[in-house]
Amino acid sequence: MSARIEARRRAPLLDVAVVGGGMVGAAAALALARAGFATALVEARAPAPWHGEDEVDLRVVGLAPSSIALLDELGVWRSIRERRAAPYARMHVWDARSGAAIDFDAAATGHAWLGWIVENSLVQWTLWQALESAGVQRLCPAQVTGYQAREDRVELELEAGETASVAARLLVAADGAGSPLRRMAGLETHGRDYGQRAVVAHVATERAHQDTAWQRFLPGGPLALLPLADGRSSIVWSLPEAEAQRVLALADGAFCGELGIACDFRLGRVLTATRRAAFPLRLQLADAYQAERFVLLGDAAHAVHPLAGQGVNLGLRDVAELRDTLVAAREAGRDIAAAHVLRRYARRRRSADTLDAWSFDALARIYAWQALPLVAARALGVRLADHLAPLKRRFAAHAAGR
To answer: Could you tell me the CA-to-CA distances from 212 to 66, 67, 276, 394 in Å, in that order?
Structure first.
């Protein structure tokens, strides 16, 4: 008998193995462990420690109230909020071509904030630190080289140190948009490449951000200015590929000048900017969210345009739905990885994610219209929506996950 087969027989059977330790994967492992499931997290590379004296991470996320509620349930939100997070109470969105604008105010919804802007690395590091005390078995560095679904379990082969294999009732793939596990499971995706890159940086401006998220739709794509805790703004500037490369290569002064024009000097002149980075934009949806004893979460299931800032929030809603589905199955005495149990999760989340993803895509297409009659029609629709308070409240409630 080979040593690997013997090790597999000795290995205890876990309830869940989560592959991928990003924000969504780590939140999933923590949520499932807190719910009483024996859980392991497989990750190729541990996150770098987060330090308050370090420069603010270029990648930030706008956490919706639904995400904050989940992180609070998991016991990590207070730590994140007290370290470095910026709330925003208002959002102002306007069209560069027509000037038509729509405003959202938390006060109109009866809440103090619309959301919080937080560094990706802070969220991931805080979740990662919480895993050990929750009883999550962290297998890192480790990579899955293959897996087999059996009648009552999934067996994972790992490229790792002492642990060569893991057995669990359920395998959760949270390993990103390029998910190797999704390919191993034979799950296809569809979508489209936007031919754009999102340029990100942090900037200081003449005027304060006013606890407001600003977004201007330009012919080349949307530009967002998001409030940071230190008074600066984080920018996410979607541009055609060639234009993004040109902007990345600009000297700092020229970049600040062009950015000021692009945002219509809404916060006055742009005074300084950090280093810049860019990432490609693509719409991608998995054709199915489940296979035998296997489900997808987060970017492995869906990647969306960043114009609405909802990518991570959709992933965290996946986490909450999966946890609740597995808890209900356990309480009913069912196999947590039975096909009918996983179908319930997959049906609910794929339906919601697909609706949101194509809604964001439609918004991006509508704002790409440049013909004057279409611009006029778009402007009329925006102005009408801005004056319909019930409709705006519904938009805000959906974005918040309520």
So the answer is: 19, 19, 22, 19
Percentage of the chain modeled with pLDDT above 70: 92
In this prediction, residue 395 carries a pLDDT of 63
Write down the number of H helices and E strands in the chain: 12, 20
Domain presence at residue 218: no
CA 392/CA 228 separation, integer angstroms: 25
Q: Is the pLDDT of residue 74 over 90?
A: yes
- CA dihedral angle for residue 20, residue 25, residue 30, residue 32, rounded to 10 degrees: -100
pLDDT tens, position by position, 77-101: 999 999 999 999 999 999 988 888 8
Residue 254 lies in a domain: no
- Cα separation, 180 vs 186, in Å, equals 10
What is the spatial distance between Cα 176 and Cα 340, in angstroms, rounded to a whole number?
25
Task: Find the helix packing angle between 77-84 and 65-73, rounded to 10°.
Answer: 120
Q: Residue 60 CB: number of other CB atoms within 10 A?
A: 25
Tell me what the mean pLDDT of segment 324-333 comes to: 98
Residue with tokens 């209900």, as numbered in its chain: 328
In angstroms, rounded to a whole number, what is the distance separating the alpha carbons of residues 203 and 119? 15
What is the length of the chain? 402
- Domain-located, residue 380: no
Count of domains observed in the chain: 1
Q: pLDDT-based confidence at 394, cuts 50/70/90?
A: low
- Compute the distance between CA of residue 370 and CA of residue 213 in angstroms, rounded to an integer: 25
Is 128 within the bounds of a domain?
A: yes
Tell how strand 277-286 and strand 302-303 pair up.
antiparallel
User: Given strand 60-63, what is the order of strands in its sheet?
Assistant: 60-63, 115-119, 85-88
| Residue 138's CATH number | 3.50.50.60
Domain of residue 143, residue span: 3-54+123-190+282-364
What's this model's pTM, rounded to 2 decimal places?
A: 0.91
- DSSP assignment of 23-75 equals HHHHHHHHHHHHTT--EEEE-SSPPPPP-TTSPPPS-EEEE-HHHHHHHHHTT
Predicted confidence at residue 271, as pLDDT, reads 98
pLDDT per position as a tens digit, 5-16:
444 445 679 999
- Residue 306: its pLDDT value, please? 79
In angstroms, rounded to a whole number, what is the distance separating the alpha carbons of residues 217 and 248?
A: 20
